[in-house]
Each structure stands twice: as C-alpha cells, then as structure tokens.
Amino acid sequence: MANSGRFMKLQKLGGYVAIIGVCVYIIDVAFVSLRLGRFGDLTDPLKTLAACTAAPADFYLNNLLWIIINILWLVLIYTLHERMRITTPHLTRMALIAASAGTVVAITQASISTKVIGMIVQTKDVSAIRRRMPCMLAWILCIIIHMGGSAC
To answer: How many CB atoms lie within 10 A of CB 39?
Structure first.
C-alpha cells in the first residue's frame, strides 16, 4: 500500500511537469518570436552580431529556457518510467537513457552557445558566427532531437 502512495505522487509530479513544460515551451516560442520580430532574420552573421551586442540577455534567457525545457522533459520521462516499468521495463529504461543523454547534450549546447555569445559580445568578431557556430549547433540540435525521438 505504501508503494501506491508513491506512484500517485509520481503521477501528480508527471502531470505538473507536463503542464509546466508546455507553459515554458510556449513562453520560449513567444520569446523567440518577439526576438525575431525585433531583430529580423538571424541567419545573417552581421545581424546576429548586432543582435548579440544589442541584447545578449535575450540569448542567455533563451538558453536558460532551453535547459529548463529539457530538464522537465527528463523528469516527465522518469515519471513515465516509474509508472510503466513493471509492464515494459526495457522500453522505459531505454527511453530514460535516451532522455538523459538528450538532456546532457542540450545542456552542453546551451552552455557552448552562452559562452560563444559572451565571446562575440566582448570581441565583436563575426568569424565565430560565420562558419563554425551554425554547423556545430545544428549537429548538436540534431542529436538532441534524435534522443528526444528515441525517448518517445
């Protein structure tokens, strides 16, 4: 009987995490939309440099929200694992491993992006944006999406 109370608490936690995760995701999408409306298309390195130097806090907040979203995703997968581990132990364990790896890579990507934005603001150098940054972050984002899809 003690275990059923634990499972009910985990179910509630999973529900709260799902609701909070959706809210944080909507806030992040709205925030990015406002930033794109203010600075325009950020695929041009000069526009990205201007946006980074004008409002670096916007990029830092975006990275923080990205980390929060991924941690909430991991907690949600953990609650599902605890709920379903008796009927499908291997499947939920694989989902938990994939979500954990995806969260670690997402935190790494946000940390790298935050550090690079700081260097760009200090040096006002476009070369980091021009060649290496989009390619590196695109590959890392690909890995995160793949891990998220594996967790589903």
So the answer is: 16
Separation of alpha carbons 96 and 80, rounded Å: 9
Residue 76 structure tokens: 């949600």
- The pLDDT tens digits for 29-46 are 998 888 888 887 777 777
Q: pTM for this structure?
A: 0.78
Question: How many domains are contained in the chain?
Answer: 1
- Contact call for residues 20 and 75 (beta carbons, < 8 A): no
Q: Are 115 and 136 in contact (CB under 8 A)?
A: no
Crossing angle of helices 56-84 and 2-39, rounded to 10°: 150
Domain interval for residue 74: 2-151
Residue 108: which residues within 8 A CB-CB, separation 6 or more? Answer: 140
Is the separation of the CB atoms in 10 and 84 below 8 Å? no
If you ran DSSP here, which 8-state letter would residue 131 be given? Answer: I
Six-digit token pair at 11?
């179910």
